[in-house]
Amino acid sequence: MTLQVNDVRVAFGGLVALDGVSLTAEPGAVTALIGPNGAGKTTLFNVISGLIEPESGSIRLDDAELLRRSARRRARMGIVRSFQELRLFGGVSVQEQTVFAAERTVFTRSHHTRVRATQILDRLGLSGARRDLAANLSYGQQKAVSIARMLAMNGRAWLLDEQAAGLAPREYDLFCEVVTEAKERGLIILLIEHNLQLVRDLADVVVFLDRGRELATGTADEVFSDEVVRALYFGKRDQEV
């Protein structure tokens, strides 16, 4: 099982957001997308998850083409994601949000699902907050709820959009543990991250995007030592590519 992005192009008017981007994300591996703001990272996540339809290209999960399938259908096929802005139901309890994510319906509340939701919340340190409304949680707890919903959906591919940003040290460590566990279970994991130490710690493959183009792919050491990446990401933009 792989997630393959092939020659994807997205333009908003005269602005090209993705210009022929290709990558392959393997199961049991973490693929990190890095690059400056506006590089196209979140746009690529939006294309994979079905929120944006590209002008051209292909996205395949195993042998199944994802393009022209709805975001809901892609979620049912195993593509699950987090958002920078979290998108929680502020007036719904932590437990109910997790159960809803597992069953994707408000009409079914099986005992099995409730037990599983409780186990997930325990793993994420949320057992004491399971009856609390999401709006009343700390920022780090809200991010943990976002991960709880992804775990409950039992997806095959995770798209994590700056999920570690703003976490306290213990929350950060727990996030890394959960991602490592997901990797060991054979999930496909893509993450957008500006914390380069986290990228070094977690990523098996790093893809550097700039102005909608993939400019370097490799291990963290390989990409971080690439002269073009160093010029564009770590230094001044004084080099055209």
Which terms would index this structure?
6-stranded mixed sheet; 4-stranded antiparallel sheet; alpha/beta; ABC-type branched-subunit amino acid transport system ATPase component; 9 helices; transport; AAA+_ATPase; 37% helix; 241 residues
Lateral arrangement of strands in the main beta sheet: 6-7-8-3-9-10
Q: Strand pairing plus helix content: what structural class?
A: alpha/beta
Helix content: 25-40%
Helix count? Answer: 9
How far is it from the N-terminal to the C-terminal residue, by CA?
Answer: 33 Å
Low-confidence blocks of residues: 237-241
**N-to-C SSE string, H for helix and E for strand:** EEEHEEHEHHHEHEHEEHH
Using only C-alpha atoms, the radius of gyration works out to 18 Å
Strand tally is 10
* Biggest sheet details: 6 strands, mixed
How much β-strand is present in the residues? 15-25%
